[in-house]
Backbone:
C-alpha cells in the first residue's frame, strides 16, 4: 500500500513547511527570482530522482524523491534567507511550525502501526490528523480565529 510512501512525504513536508517561511522572506525583500530558481532546481532533482528510484522502489521511490526535493528547498531557502536578511536563524519559530506537522505525521504513523491500511481508515486518519494539526497550530499561536475570520471574509 501507499501508507509508507505517505509517511515519507509527510516527513519531507516538515522541511517544506519551514521552507515556505524562508521563501516568503526572500520574496518579500524583492528577490522572488531566487525562489523561482530554487523551486525549479528542486523540481528537476525530483524528476531525476523519480526516473532513478521509481523503477526499483515504486511509489516509495517517488515519495523519497519528493522528500529529498523538499529538504533541498529547505536548505537553499534557509541559506538565501540568512544571506539576504541579517538575522539569526529562527530555530524557535521553525520548531513551532514543525510541531503541528509532526503531530499529523504521528497520527498517521500510529494509525498505520495499530490499524493497518485501508482507504476509509486513511481518510479518517487524515481528517483526525488535520484536526490535530489545526489544534496544535492554534495552541502554539501560529494563527488566531480573528485571522481566520479576516481570511474567510475576503471570499
Residues:
Amino acid at each position: 500500500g501507499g501508507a509508507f510512501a505517505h509517511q515519507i512525504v509527510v516527513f519531507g513536508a516538515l522541511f517544506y513547511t519551514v521552507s515556505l517561511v524562508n521563501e516568503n522572506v526572500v520574496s518579500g525583500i524583492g528577490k522572488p527570482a531566487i525562489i523561482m530558481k530554487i523551486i525549479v532546481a528542486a523540481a528537476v532533482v525530483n524528476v531525476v530522482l523519480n526516473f532513478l528510484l521509481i523503477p526499483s522502489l515504486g511509489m516509495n521511490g517517488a515519495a523519497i524523491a519528493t522528500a529529498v526535493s523538499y529538504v533541498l528547498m529547505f536548505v537553499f531557502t534557509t541559506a538565501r534567507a540568512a544571506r539576504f536578511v541579517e538575522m539569526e536563524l529562527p530555530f524557535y519559530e521553525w520548531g513551532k511550525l514543525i510541531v503541528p506537522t509532526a503531530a499529523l505525521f504521528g497520527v498517521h504513523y500510529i494509525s498505520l502501526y495499530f490499524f493497518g491500511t485501508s482507504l476509509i481508515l486513511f481518510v479518517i486518519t487524515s481528517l483526525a490528523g488535520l484536526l490535530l494539526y489545526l489544534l496544535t497550530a492554534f495552541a502554539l499561536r501560529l494563527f488566531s480565529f480573528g485571522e481566520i475570520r479576516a481570511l474567510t471574509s475576503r471570499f
